Amino acid sequence: MASVSASNQVNTLCLGVSEPISTAWPTEFDLIKTRELEKFLADCGLYETREEAIRREEVLGRVDQIVKVWVKTVSRAKGFNEQLVHEANAKIFTFGSYRLGVHGPGADIDTLCVGPRHATRDEDFFGELHRMLAETPEVQELHPVPDAHVPVMRFKFNGVSIDLLYARLSLWVIPEDFDISQETILQNVDEQTVRSLNGCRVTDQILRLVPNIQNFRTTLRCMRFWAKRRGVYSNVSGFLGGINWALLVARICQLYPNAVPSTLVSRFFRVYTQWRWPNPVILCPIEEKCLGLPVWDPRRNIKDRNHLMPIITPAYPSMNSSYNVSWSTLRIMEEELQRGNEIVKEMDTENTGWITLFEPFLFFEAYKNYLQIDITAENDVDLRNWKGWVESRLRLLTRKIERDTGGMLQCHPHPAEFSDTSRSFHYCYFMGLRRKEGSAAKEGEQFDIRLTVDDFKNTVWMYSSWKRGMWIHVCHIRHKNIPNFVFPGGVRPPQPMKVAGEQGRVLKPMGFNSQKRKRDEIDAGSHPRESTSLVENVKSDLQGEVKLEQVEVNVGDSLTKVICSSENSSHNSIEVEGYARCSQPLGAASSASGSLSLGRALVIETTSEPLVHQCSSKEVGESQVGLVDQVQNFDVGKRVNCVQSSTVERGIAAAAAAAAAGQGFSPCCSSLFQNGGLEELEV
């Protein structure tokens, strides 16, 4: 439980890149709300039992023993004498949620194996150690991923999930009291080792940079749970992962060093609702050491200028931990932060409970149109490998659609996968589709993303370990045709009632017949070349009234007209159907799918705007707290002048300005961040 005492007071001047917004101590109301929050989190089952904690420690001890035996085996095989074999050592470190102390029941343990220079990654780690683990009876589901951005070996040890990374240092012997925080260990190592070491070094640095570790942990546990419930917890999908949320929470702890978790949660939403991306979130000054490793610097690195939501790691070399974020996922997270801010403000005034904040996002009720991505393989091992590869590429589909539609069509990827139990070795992913908020539909406007999807699939087919039976299919489905297996228990929830129009009439389908949907046959061959269609739908209700729009979409040999409505930023959605002439599905698993034929030209009749729009911050009225009206003079060493209207406003301004001034760029979307196009992520 959070407590207030003089011993908790810290020297806040040494934490963060700006002065705190507030150093006020919590009130009795804050303490009561914190106790309620902690009880709520406990009732949700977010804390593991003592028995589970002991089992994890035992598993880590066994893994440490295995890697020590492994490094001695490798040393002996390479001809080292017995004395050197005896001195040979490898050491296990933890990082991520387990090291931060916010893991829950069943969570995996992020671990790092640090080995000497003669133990190589490809031959020894993914070779000999993989063989040893495969022969260990307690190890199940062993899955090496040597081609990942950060190579990893995944497995379960006595039921505990382990993600094992490897760092090959330039040392001949790894001492048992090895300090991973020292920067000299980065000398003469490859990029994969630097990235592998970064997880541990960042985690330890975060714990050093927060004023109260216990308050940080409770707040982070809360925000992780909220992000998962609202569907915005997934780095691979283009949202934010565990390290990103940890860095965001740590910055709030720096800005409110004496606040308890209930206050920190409230201030989290207040600050980041008003944060002007791409201003970076930075916990400490970015330093360039003599080692010459690249650090995040948009003044020098062109790719860094394209980052939309930079959240910078505090350990050298500083990197952007959120480079996967796209325009679509940034928009979704901004909307969720706004929703959270409105709820916590009501909690402060009406003394309501926490449950409303954590209501799950109803993904399959939120959109009219979706993309469905199905993957299959011939066996469990192939499916696990194929699944990992496809998941790492799904974010590219979002970016390609944004690129090819000029940013007018936005995607909402669901962070989880689904499986149809009636099919063997099968997984399915979904993306919600909608027009860019605030853009008006034009009569006769068409979206045709078949070539975009083909481009994405060609990227997927580049998998170096592809085997016969690995297959991917992408198709468009409407809301009413979502397969039942995605719903809890396989039962579709009842459909909402039709919404009355302005004249009191009910909006009904106009000649729509779902039995007339059909799909074109899939081309034969080892790499099926299916195509995808999009029935583009608009849902925005900016003025609180139903506004009907009509859009024509080229769907292969058919024409689909959709009467579209709009939705406002508060997620008020209105389902309005139109009429369509489509084709019949092929196969039971895709009975709800519509598909495009190949060979038709890409049709994009949207707008003359640039492909990627310049970042625009949310404009908040003067009655809303916390926005800076103007920030000027952002050259290094110059004073930052802020026009401000409140204490919180000044604090947020100082935080953003300090981060910007330290890097010599403007937080207000200066020309440094103007992107002429959207580059793909490195793959």
Automatic annotation (TrEMBL):
One of its GO terms (molecular function) is RNA binding. CDD domains: NT_PAP_TUTase (cd05402). Residues 510-534 are annotated as: Disordered. Coiled coil: none annotated. This is polynucleotide adenylyltransferase. Residues 215-359 form the Poly(A) polymerase central domain. It catalyses: RNA(n) + ATP = RNA(n)-3'-adenine ribonucleotide + diphosphate. Pfam families: PAP_central (PF04928), PAP_NTPase (PF20750), PAP_RNA-bind (PF04926). One of its GO terms (biological process) is mRNA processing. Its cofactor is Mn(2+); Mg(2+). Gene3D superfamilies: 1.10.1410.10, Beta Polymerase, domain 2 (3.30.460.10), Poly(A) polymerase predicted RNA binding domain (3.30.70.590). Belongs to the poly(A) polymerase family. The lineage of its organism: Eukaryota, Viridiplantae, Streptophyta, Embryophyta, Tracheophyta. Its EC number is 2.7.7.19. One of its GO terms (cellular component) is nucleus. Keywords: ATP-binding, Magnesium, Metal-binding, mRNA processing, Nucleotide-binding, Nucleotidyltransferase, Nucleus, Transferase. Its main location: nucleus. Residues 363-422 form the Poly(A) polymerase RNA-binding domain.
